[in-house]
Structures are given as C-alpha cells and as structure tokens.
Design brief:
The chain is built from one helix and nine strands; from the N terminus they run E-E-H-E-E-E-E-E-E-E. A hairpin with a 2-residue loop joins strand 5 and strand 6.
C-alpha cells in the first residue's frame, strides 16, 4: 500500500488547527480534464497526441520540462513523478496501455513547467527504452 496523509497534529503559524476535514481527490483523466480555474487544487494540465505505427512495446516516459505531478496515458494513470527529488526520473509505460495509432498523454503538473507557448517553449515528454532510476536524491 502507498499510504499518504497526515500522521500528526496540523498547525498554522505554530498554532494547532482544530475541527477541519480532509477528503481524497480522485485525479483520473476525466476529473483533470474538467478542472477549471478556482477549483480547490491548483495545477496545470498539458496534453498531447502521439502516433504508434507498429505494435506497441513496453517503454518508459520522462518529463524533463516538468517538476512534480502525475501522468496519464489513454486514461490509464501511470503514476507520480517528482523530478526535483529523484532518484526515479522515468515511469514505466506497459505496452497494454498503448495502442496502434493515436494515443493521448496527459501531464498534470502541480508545481512548475518550463513552458511558455507565447515564447515557443512547450512542455515535452520523451519515451525512452531504459529507465532512469539512479538520479541524485534531493531533500
């Protein structure tokens, strides 16, 4: 299990917060596509299409333009990335997620993207044959 959450008291300016609630937020592709400015969670979504002409194979994806977020391919949540932390810089993309022809990739970025379409800088993803698993770890 990949348990996440708060495991102690919650404070604001060193004062305990009382009588608050938390709830899970499902981040599937449909939810992310429907997000609008002002929704309770902030972030940016970046999506694109890519074409596979032959038979799909297992691969890995890396997102050098992005820092922290989630990747969805063809409505399948691959998982989270956090490039500024390491050591994993790629996510596994099983061939069962891919299809011959047009495929859709969605990157939901929570922190920062080195992107500015007005300046011709677009976020990009790269598919690579081997994983990058031994990068530096930053605290």
């Amino acid at each position: 299990d990949d348990i996440k959450g708060v495991f102690g008291k919650v404070t604001l300016d060193n004062k305990p917060l009382l009588n608050w609630q938390s709830q899970r937020l499902l981040l599937n592709a449909t939810r992310v596509k429907k997000m609008r400015r002002g929704d309770p969670i902030q972030g940016t979504r970046h999506h694109g299409l890519f074409h596979i002409s032959g038979e799909p194979t297992d691969t890995f994806i890396k997102v050098p333009s992005f820092r922290k977020g989630s990747i969805v391919i063809n409505n399948f949540n691959l998982g989270r990335y956090w490039n500024s932390r390491g050591p994993q810089y790629t996510l596994f993309v099983p061939k069962s997620v891919l299809r011959r022809g047009i495929n859709h990739v969605l990157v939901f970025e929570l922190e920062y993207c080195r992107c500015d379409p007005a300046l011709g800088r677009f976020g990009h993803v790269e598919f690579v044959a081997k994983p990058i698993l031994n990068g530096p770890v930053h605290n």
